[in-house]
Amino acid sequence: MNEKKAFETVRHSLKPRRFEHTERVVEQATKLAEKYGGDFKKIRMAAILHDYAKYRPTEEMRQKVMKNSTLPMRLLDYGDELLHSFVGAVYVKEELDIKDEVILSAIRYHTTGRAGMTLEEKIVFLADYIEPGRTFPEAAEARKLAEDDLDLACLASLKNTIIHLSNKSLAIYPDTFEAYNDFVNK
Ligand SMILES: [Fe+2]
Ligand SMILES: [Fe+2]
C-alpha cells in the first residue's frame, strides 16, 4: 500500500477532526524521523494508519481480543482507549494486508509504549503526544525536550500520562509502567 492509498483509507474511516490529527501526527513524525533517523517510509506509514481503528465499535474490538490469540487478554481489563491501538494493528494487518512488523508495532504501542521500544515506535508514540493540536502544557514540555533528546521526551510523555491517569483514578496498562521504568533507567 502506498501513502496516497493509506491516506485515502483513513480519510474514510476517521471523522474529519481525527483525520486532521492524523495529518499532524504524520508531519510531526516526519520531523522526528529527519532528526533521529529510523525507517522513514515505515514511520510515515505507521503514523498515517495509527488511529485506523479509532471509531470501530468497542464491542467489536473486545470480541476481537477474545478471538485473536495474538492479542493480550488483559486488554479487556483496562480503558477502552487502549483497544484501538492494539486491535488497530491487527485490523491493519488483516484488512490492509500490511505485514511489516516495524509498522505494526509502531501502531500497536502508540498509546501505551512498552519496555524496549524501537526507534520507530518511539517516534510514532511521541508524535501522537506532541503534535501541534495537543495544547495541554505537558505536550509543550515534551515538545521542547524532543528538540534535543528523544528518550527524555518519551519519558516525560509517559510520566505525564501516568500522572494524568492516576489523577483521574483510571487503570494504567502495565506496558506504560514498563516503558517508564525502561526510560528512567537509561
Ligand atoms: Fe490513538
Ligand atoms: Fe492519534
Automatic annotation (TrEMBL):
Root EC class: hydrolase
Keywords: Hydrolase, Iron, Metal-binding, Nucleotide-binding
InterPro entries membership: Diverse_Catalytic_Enzymes, HD/PDEase_dom, HD_domain, YqeK
Residue intervals of the HD domain: 18-133
SMART domains the UniProt entry points to: HDc
One of the record's GO molecular function terms: nucleotide binding
EC number: 3.6.1.41
Domain of life: Bacteria
Catalytic activity reported: P(1),P(4)-bis(5'-adenosyl) tetraphosphate + H2O = 2 ADP + 2 H(+)
UniProt keyword Nucleotide-binding present: yes
Protein name: bis(5'-nucleosyl)-tetraphosphatase (symmetrical)
Lineage: Bacteria, Bacillati, Bacillota, Bacilli, Bacillales
